[in-house]
Design goal:
Blueprint (H helix, E strand, L loop, with lengths): L2 E5 L2 E3 L5 E8 L5 E9 L6 E8 L6 E5 L7 E6 L4 E6 L8 E9 L3 E4 L3 E5 L2
Parallel strand pairs: 2-11
Antiparallel strand pairs: 1-3, 3-8, 4-5, 4-9, 5-6, 7-8, 9-10, 9-11
């Protein structure tokens, strides 16, 4: 059974940085897109960043939510089944539970359990 496990969350001061990691495990046929989402209590889960691999040129394409552009960077290591989210210049409004998502070939979509990020002085 495929699983996603996030790590790297924690408490950071405003202006600080954190890197989230997400590891895919279990037998699978490959991963199409991977993404990070976040959710605060009482609100819906929103896309933060998305990364996909272009099959013709083997280059990754990325998309970011407007409020994180220029501050967050998503990357992936396909050989390890990993996706990362480098978060810089963090703001209190970035406080949320961050979830990893992966679209597995044939097997479909999976979510991680989430990791808490708190930005506070």
């Amino acid at each position: 059974q495929v699983r996603l496990v996030e790590s790297g969350g924690g408490l950071v001061q405003p202006g600080g940085s954190l890197t989230l990691s997400c590891a895919a495990s279990g037998r699978n046929f490959g991963i199409n897109s991977m993404s990070w989402h976040r959710q605060t209590p009482g609100k819906q889960r929103n896309l933060v960043a998305w990364i996909n691999r272009e099959r013709t040129h083997y280059e990754d394409t990325t998309t970011y939510a407007d409020d994180v552009k220029g501050r967050f960077t998503i990357s992936r290591d396909n050989s390890k089944g990993m996706v990362y989210l480098q978060m810089n210049s963090l703001k209190p409004e970035d406080t949320a539970v961050y979830y990893c998502n992966a679209d597995f070939v044939i097997l479909g979509e999976r979510w991680g359990q989430g990791t808490q990020v708190t930005v506070s002085s």
